[in-house]
Automatic annotation (TrEMBL):
PANTHER family: ALCOHOL DEHYDROGENASE (PTHR42901). This is NAD(P)-dependent oxidoreductase. It comes from Brasilonema sennae CENA114. One of its GO terms (molecular function) is oxidoreductase activity, acting on the CH-OH group of donors, NAD or NADP as acceptor. Belongs to the short-chain dehydrogenases/reductases (SDR) family. Gene3D superfamilies: NAD(P)-binding Rossmann-like Domain (3.40.50.720).
């Protein structure tokens, strides 16, 4: 297993869910964490919790990945001791709405495209050149089963995650000849704030998504991310699709009640 002791790990969307779970797994392994998200107070709470349980250095960045100028500034103004990023976890992403395409909300579309595709591209574009220069690094993109299988009313969200899958494949091809690794971790149902966000805070509707099902937890996904980055340096895990046992595809789910 490759040690990530003292490696610098940048996690976007780190304030909750899979991002927060990744922060804890990597802190436990002795990595140094750059945690980025829009909600600074949530980041601070996470940093306090991590610092209480693990001995690690943490640098917080309040960042909206949709803002290219802000991403450029965040990366270019990192303190020298934090600037050599070893692992980039592109986790920031969201789903908005569950409407038929011809009835979709334009603002929902913009938010998903700007966060899930363009935000991921901005981070990758500003971080990976440093990895190439230093001759080391690993990019992990958090995709989704939605990037493999389209489901009814998932149209644009599925489109953005299909883009993440294609971008991951393209980046791997473009980095051929370098030691930099690229992985895409694509989960099915994970119980996070995902459905709350999708349904604009309608908790009752969000809770029904997981009713009668034992979904994946953020920790389950973080474990897989950690597995990818700790393989021997000549091994690249291109893509992992993981789902709960109660889920067989994007639309086939076993509900116990």
């Amino acid at each position: 297993m490759l040690s990530i002791q003292n490696q610098i790990v940048l996690i976007t969307g780190a304030s909750s869910g899979i991002g927060a779970a990744c922060a804890k797994v990597f802190a436990n392994a002795g990595a140094k964490l750059i945690l980025a998200a829009r909600r600074l107070e949530r980041l601070q709470e996470l940093a306090d919790e991590v610092s209480k349980n693990f001995t690690t250095d943490i640098h917080l960045v309040q960042l909206d990945v949709r803002d290219r100028t802000a991403v450029e500034s965040a990366i270019s103004t990192l303190p020298p001791s934090w600037s050599e990023i070893d692992i980039l976890i592109n986790n920031a992403g969201l789903s908005r709405g569950l409407d038929k395409l011809h009835e979709g909300d334009f603002q929902d579309w913009e938010e998903m495209i700007d966060t899930n595709i363009k935000g991921l591209l901005y981070l990758t574009r500003y971080v990976v050149p440093g990895m190439v220069k230093r001759d080391r690094g690993h990019v992990v993109n958090i995709g989704s089963i939605a990037g493999h299988q389209t489901y009814p009313s998932g149209n644009v969200y599925c489109g953005t995650k299909a883009a993440v899958r294609a971008i991951s494949e393209g980046l791997k091809q473009d980095l051929l000849g370098t030691p930099i690794r690229v992985s895409s971790v694509d989960p099915g149902m994970v119980e996070t704030e995902f459905s709350d966000v999708r349904f604009h805070g309608d908790s009752d509707r969000a809770n029904k998504v997981y009713q009668g099902v034992k979904p994946l937890t953020p920790d389950d996904v973080a474990d897989v991310v950690f597995f990818c980055v700790t393989r021997p340096s000549h091994v690249n895990i291109n893509e992992v699709v993981l789902m709960p046992v109660d889920q067989a595809s994007a639309t086939l789910v076993n509900r116990r009640n």
